[in-house]
Amino acid sequence: MIARAASAGVTALITAGVDGATSRAAVARADKYASVYAVVGIHPHHAAALDDESLKALRALAAHRKVVGIGEIGLDFYWADNPPRETQARALNAQLDLAAELAKPVVIHNRAADDLLMEILRRRKGNPRGILHCYAGDLAMAREAINLGYLISFAGNVTFTNAARAQAIAKALPLECMIVETDAPYLSPLRGKRNEPANVARVAAKIAELKSLAPAVVAQTTTHNCARLFGLPN
User: Quick one: how far is CA 82 from the chain centroid?
Assistant: First the structure.
């Protein structure tokens, strides 16, 4: 998979943890492969598991030389408030505090929680910075997030034929405020197939089509944006 990504021109991959076990696995893979980096965190689905001990473990993992951020963290109210909203918000705030303490960017998951997420981010005024991953909000929210110091990240679903809103937002936003991702193994541009990092080239090509730009321009700019935010070699 890493070789296929390299063949597609993908020079660096960031793999994300969603709980303690996957965060440890992300760090192990980053340690093994030169082109792989990790972010570590507790996803909102696992927010109830975040306590003082697991936060201490995250802090220790984040000290690894290949850990470039805290994530995937955030809010997800799509699944009937499970875990409860206040539990998710508490976990998000604790991990935002950790990221600010360590001066690392964050990877934020948001599903059906726009209002509370923006309320939390407004109070922090861009500290820490990061990305709104697999962006699903509206254009006004994207512009406010950019003003707060966040980048907007578009995933494989921006290539879907039913993704008119995401495509309109990608067309409207400045390229300097965007990055591209896959959200592998989900949201494959090749419907019915497992997604993987090589397909990020397809996401970049779709953004280029929407913005009437050369794919190389989108690839270069979004790579620079990502490398600058996460401190990757560019």
Answer: 21
